[in-house]
Design brief:
By secondary structure, this protein is an alpha/beta fold. The protein is built from 15 helices and 5 strands. Helix 13 links the parallel strand 4 and strand 5 (236-239).
Length: 295
Amino acid sequence: MNGTNVSNSILERLAGELPDLTPEARKAATYVLENPRDVGVSTVREIAQAANVKPNTVVRMARQVGFDGYEDFRAPFRDAIRRGAADFPDRARWLQDIRKTGDLGGLYADMVRDVLANIEETFAGIPVQDLHSAADAIWSARRVFTLGVGVNHSIARNFTYVASTGMTEFHAIPRPGSTPVDDLAWADARDILIAVTCKPYRSEVVEAVRIAREQGMTIVALSDSPASPIILEADHSFVVSVDTPQFFPSSVSIIALLETLLSLVIAVASDEIVERVDTFHRRRHQLGLYYDEAK
């Protein structure tokens, strides 16, 4: 949390007040300064116990730096966690704390707001010509490899599955029992790698992108920061917004962007794509894979 507005304001103010605090309040303040992440996920009693002081000492400390009480003092720390300025365990503890305080309505509102905001912020920052350029490259490629691990593996597989209804050389990696680097062993400048990873960045994705670059592949990267290691290596880069009160980065904008990218690939494709999609679905109907609503 040391890079957030919390550290630049409240923590600096608290450090400035340190000489004027009572010895007991100074103990509480020192604990907060050394463990700022604990504030957003801990009750006043938990902070007091950790600092070896009484709960009312923590309250006095909060008032010393201009807050009405501990809950008022804790609010900016909790908000920093909600915005992602903490690791996954801290954010999970924060969600548990929301349940204990009964503020599930607020959590619900935050989730809805962030889902909508993520979509808006993601697409607001991406010119349509950038998506068009990536779509042209994907359609022109010999083979397309879609790479995601962890939660992004299912997203990559879903994108590949839908694309495969009209295109023949889409491959989700890593394949079962393989590694991304192995799956790209024979790829070259005629091929494309679509890679997805967000903080904390998965090393196997970063390494695969590096290898793909060495092999001359075109790289399409989706990540959560312009400074992401895969964004820096990409020919076509897209920064997605993944903020959420949830303890794990949101996937909503990633899915939406990939769906949009695929729609543009279909739009720039040659006429044969329509026949391929029609053949794919006609065969599925013939095999009885779709529920017959007429029965």
